């Protein structure tokens, strides 16, 4: 099952080059500029890595970046990064360079089943769900910091 979340162009971002984060003025969320596994340089060089859900959870929880507390974003939060008309990837390529056009984890449970979680596909902006228990379900990750946001 897929859903599309379409947003207008994102013009409310502030890039913090020194601390490698992006602050969204609308949602007040602070995002990792680079996907996990990439270098925190201006181009987010290197290969982003994919993780099983528990690995992703632990990684965000232990992330040391900009003195913030990090977590896996909800589906409502992660879909705020999708830009209408963008594909491959469907995200602001200047704010979030070298983002993989692939699946990224969220922390949102699907249909009251704690083993099934929503993910966001940054190839086309769709969302769907996967069972987090299967080891072959390894997805990419971008952590977020800030108060919970819902649209």
Walkthrough of the structure:
The chain is mainly beta and 151 residues long. The chain has one domain. The protein is built from two helices and eight strands; from the N terminus they run E-E-E-E-H-H-E-E-E-E. It has helices at residues 53-62, 75-78, and strands at 3-4, 13-16, 21-24, 30-32, 103-110, 113-121, 126-131, 144-145. Strands 1-7-6-5 form a four-stranded antiparallel β-sheet. A four-stranded antiparallel β-sheet has the order 2-3-4-8, with no helix packed on it. The longest helix has 10 residues, at 53-62. The radius of gyration is 14 Å and the shape is globular. It starts with a strand and ends in a 6-residue tail after the last strand.
Task: Please give a handful of descriptors for the protein shown.
single chain; 151 residues; mainly beta; 4-stranded antiparallel β-sheet; 2 helices; 8 strands; 9% helix; 25% strand; globular; disordered N terminus
Task: For the largest sheet, list the strands in their spatial order.
Answer: 1-7-6-5
User: What proportion of the residues form beta strands (DSSP E)?
Assistant: 25-35%
Oligomer: single chain
Poorly predicted spans:
1-8
The helix tally amounts to 2
Determine the structural class based on helices, strands and strand pairing: mainly beta
Task: Tell me the span between the first and last alpha carbons.
Answer: 21 Å
The run of helices and strands is EEEEHHEEEE
- Radius of gyration, whole Å: 14 Å
Instruction: Report mean pLDDT, rounded to a whole number.
Output: 88
Number of strands: 8
User: Major sheet: size, sense and barrel closure?
Assistant: 4 strands, antiparallel
